């Protein structure tokens, strides 16, 4: 029996967003990735917070989808091993 509600939430740094249109484009690009359940875009902060099923998709796939829409996305390191801030 599979656990269907095992979604995790991660943040991405998104560069190039300047208006509500950009915000919407980023939100839709991420939402279209299979396995993504919710997307919250912070236009002013240049961030996107995505909830997704890690069995269905990956951080890399979501970042690639946003980047393909024209806004470069990278995972926001939150307490991980790679802290370069
Ligand atoms: Cu725009």
Account of the 3D structure:
By secondary structure, the protein is an alpha+beta fold. Helix 1 crosses helix 2. It is built from two helices and four strands; from the N terminus they run E-H-E-E-H-E. The longest helix is centred in the N-terminal third of the chain and has 12 residues, at 20-31. 26% of the residues lie in helices and 27% in strands. It has helices at 20-31, 59-68, and strands spanning 8-14, 36-42, 47-52, 73-75. Copper (II) ion is lined by residues 18-19, 21-22.
What is the CATH T-level topology? Alpha-Beta Plaits
How many structural units, i.e. domains? 1
Main beta sheet strand tally, sense and closure: 4 strands, antiparallel
Can you name the CATH architecture?
2-Layer Sandwich
Secondary-structure element string: EHEEHE
Strand order of the largest sheet: 2-3-1-4
Q: Over the alpha carbons, how many angstroms does the gyration radius reach?
A: 13 Å
Per DSSP, the total helix count is 2
Outline type: globular
Low-pLDDT residue intervals, each spanning 5 or more residues: none
Distance between the termini: 41 Å
- Tally of strands: 4
**Strand fraction band?**
25-35%
Helix-strand makeup class: alpha+beta
Look at the structure and give the CATH class.
Alpha Beta
Bound molecules: copper (II) ion
Write a concise synopsis of the structure shown.
This protein has 85 residues and is an alpha+beta fold.
What attributes characterize this protein structure?
single chain; 85 residues; alpha+beta; Alpha-Beta Plaits; 4-stranded antiparallel beta sheet; 2 helices; 4 strands; 26% helix; 27% strand; binds copper (II) ion
